[in-house]
Amino acid sequence: MIYSQDFKKGVRRPPSRSSILEGRHHWIGKGALLLISLSIIGVVVAKTHESITREVTLKPSPLEIPKHKRVIEKLSLPKKERVIPNSTPKATATISHTEKHSPNWTEITIKAGDTASALFSKLRIYGQLHPLLAIPAAQQAFRSFHPGKKLRILKDSNGLVELYFDFSSVRRLHAVRKNNKLTAKIETAKIETRRLMTKGTIESSLVGSGRKAGLTSNLVMKLVDIFAYDIDFAQDIHEGDSFKVVFEEHYAKGEKLSGGTILAAEFTNRGQSYKALRFTDKLGNASYYTPTGKSLRKAFLRTPVNYSRISSRFNPRRKHPTLNTIRAHQGVDYAAPEGTPIKAASDGKIIFRGTQNGYGKTVILQHGKTYSTLYGHLSRFKTNQKTKQWVQQGEVIGYVGQTGRATGPHLHYEFRVNGTHKNPLTVKLPAAKPISAELRPAFKKQTQPLLAQLAYSGSTLASAEKP
Fold first, then answer.
1. Taking a C-beta distance cutoff of 8 angstroms, is the pair 320, 327 a contact?
2. Half-sphere exposure of 432 (CA within 13 A, CB side)
3. Other C-beta atoms lying within 10 Å of the C-beta of residue 378
4. Is 323 inside any structural domain?
5. 49: part of which helix (H) or strand (E)?
6. CATH number where 393 lies
7. How many angstroms separate the CA atoms of 267 and 244, rounded?
8. Is 0.90 surpassed by the pTM of this model?
9. Angle value at C-alpha 47, between 45 and 52, nearest 5 degrees
């Protein structure tokens, strides 16, 4: 029973009936209110775990009829990102991997200082290197183990599985391990050959005019070599001279290969025209001939060096520039930058290679019983050559210098017939053999289309493919 306290009088008296009822209603009301509040909180919490709603007002586009539209848009709570503890980025390997074949392939670009043994050791397949190099095809390919070349290697737990080595622009080594046995072969890419014709007129230089006409520097030099026996390209070329060239360009995997082949050419120098046609015999030997079958190749080169100017000509009564006396100049001096390659004028044997009086470093070649040539004032000799060794026409034998009694870098060149000095600029040079009667039918069949192509005034003639 609840008693009330009369604080003023200090007397306790029992509560009245009305006060008891009033107290009960009070606690009942508080309990109901508490239950209602808890229910509302529970609903709000439950809804919070699902989604949050918000009321937005969207402005209609001009084409919408209603002025406004109230839309309830649900906003999902963002999901927490899963964090993996102690995660670190993957280390970058020194050797890159390519997905071209499969994720297990490794692609290597050879760098300066790299060796096959070092790379195979790094890949932990060193044990397969020696068995691989025991195969002749692999030996041939790995001779071109140079910076810039690429290797693609597939390996497993047992070592090397497969290997590709692109050792040239058109050839690659393909090695495979099968049943614990290594095999290797050389694969050659399909070569596309395009035949073209171009023409041009000399303006300031042959090289510049050739490039303007679409010839590479390599093809321009080949053009010079073809007509070098008849035309002095250092002294006799003039503005207005013209040329026509039928040539081939080669492509592999869509990329142009270096080089190219001249099939026919015509050069007009000072109004006189020279024609050259390429003929290849059954053995694959190729050379250039006139339309009548005469060889453009002479037994001797007229000039054995690409020179800047003739600094001194053949003169039996010349005054020597350093001795200041009358002394015969029994050769021709070709001024050229130091280090310019000097070529053998014809096939011959080295009979002297050393220092000779005022000639300085000198090479003398003997060409059969009748002819010999001398090359003086060299800065250095070509390596891997020695006395009594045979060299071919056009092969480098040394380099321009100014050793001995010389006032500047040049080549002193002498031409002797039966021991007698002759003027290299005017001496009549023996010609090579013409097309034989046996080969003449094949020569006509092969060169007649080339003559027709030289007369054609267009640019692109044909395109063909060679396997």
1. yes
2. 18
3. 25
4. yes
5. helix 17-50
6. 2.70.70.10
7. 7
8. no
9. 110
Rounded to an integer, what distance in angstroms lies between the CA atom of residue 200 and that of residue 241? 9
Q: Are 213 and 199 in contact (CB under 8 A)?
A: yes
Is residue 3, in this structure, part of any structural domain at all?
Answer: no
Whole-angstrom distance between the N-terminal and C-terminal Cα of the chain?
A: 118
179-182: list long-range contacts, CB under 8 Å, 24+ apart. Answer: 182/128, 182/131, 182/132, 182/135
pLDDT value of residue 16: 52
Q: Is residue 131 part of a domain?
A: yes
What number of other Cβ atoms are within 10 A of residue 406's Cβ?
19
Q: For the residues of 187-211, what is the DSSP string, one character each?
A: EE--EEEEEEEEEEE-SS-HHHHHH
Answer yes or no: do 200 and 292 share one domain.
yes
| 8 A C-beta contact, residue 26 and residue 18 | no
Q: How far apart are CA 367 and CA 348, in angstroms?
A: 5
* Domain stop point among 188, 209, 237: 188
Number of domains in the chain: 3
125: left (phi over 0), alpha (psi -120 to 50) or beta: alpha
- Please give the average pLDDT of every successive group of 10 residues along the chain, which has 467 residues: 46 51 53 54 46 40 40 40 37 36 75 90 88 91 90 89 88 89 88 89 90 90 88 83 92 78 94 94 89 89 88 74 67 94 95 94 95 96 95 94 92 94 89 88 94 72 42
CA proximity to 129, closest of 153, 113, 95: 153
Using CA atoms in the order 452, 454, 458, 459, what is the torsion angle rounded to 10 degrees?
A: 120
d(CA 226, CA 244): 13
- The answer to whether 237 touches 223, Cβ cutoff 8 Å, is no
CB atoms near residue 262 (< 10 Å): 18
CATH classification at residue 248: 3.10.450.350
Q: What angle do CA 453, 454, 459 make, to 5 degrees?
A: 70
Q: Do 418 and 342 belong to one domain? A: yes
Residue 459 lies in a domain: yes
Cβ neighbours of 250 (radius 10 Å): 18
Residue by residue, DSSP assigns 87-108 as --PPPPPSS-B--SS-TTEEEE
Contact 402, 362 (CB under 8 A): no
Antiparallel, parallel or unpaired: β 396-400 and 341-343: antiparallel
